[in-house]
Each structure stands twice: as structure tokens, then as C-alpha cells.
Amino acid sequence: MAQYRASESKREQFRRYLEKSGVLDTLTSVLVALYEEPEKPNNALDFIKLHLGAAGPEPADTEALRTELADLQQKCSELMEENKELRSRVSVYR
């Protein structure tokens, strides 16, 4: 019987923790939004992830970001080389 009370106490502590941190309110609002959705989505989990902000970027966005990253890395390398060259020129004049 003492084991049951201990686990019940832990359960209650965890519930209070979730309530205090706002998790319960957030989950409730997302589930209410799903409930009030006129046309239920095929994948409820994706709906929940999207409304919680865990969906991540779209594949097209991802590809555009990768391209931009590659371009910026190339530009950074070029600027680093230019910086190195200019520093060597300045050191010659000192």
C-alpha cells in the first residue's frame, strides 16, 4: 500500500510540474484547436507538431537554405583569403 501512495505522490508532483511549466495549457489549446478544426487532418500528429512549432522547414525551404549556406561559405572563404592577403600587404608597409 505504501508503494502505491509513493507512486501516486510522484504522479501528482509530475502533474503539478507540467501545470506549472505551462505544458498542460499548451497541449490543451492544441487539442482544442484540433477538435474545433472543421475538416480533420489525415494525420493528427502532424497537426499537433505543426501547432507546437516542431514541424521544421518545408523541403523546398531546406534546399534553398542549403544552397544559401554553400554560397555564404564560399564567400566567407574568399573573404578570408582576401583578408589574409591584405594583412600580408600591410605587414610589408610597416
From TrEMBL:
Query: GO CC terms for this protein?
Result: nucleus
Q: What is its main location?
A: nucleus
**Cross-referenced InterPro entries:** AMY1
User: By what name is this protein known?
Assistant: MYC binding protein
Task: Please give the family membership noted in the entry.
Answer: Belongs to the AMY1 family.
UniProt KW keywords? Coiled coil, Nucleus
Q: Coiled-coil stretches, from where to where?
A: 62-89
- The keyword Magnesium is assigned to this record: no
GO molecular function of the protein, one example? transcription coactivator activity
Source organism of this protein record: Neolamprologus brichardi
Where can this protein be found? Answer: Nucleus
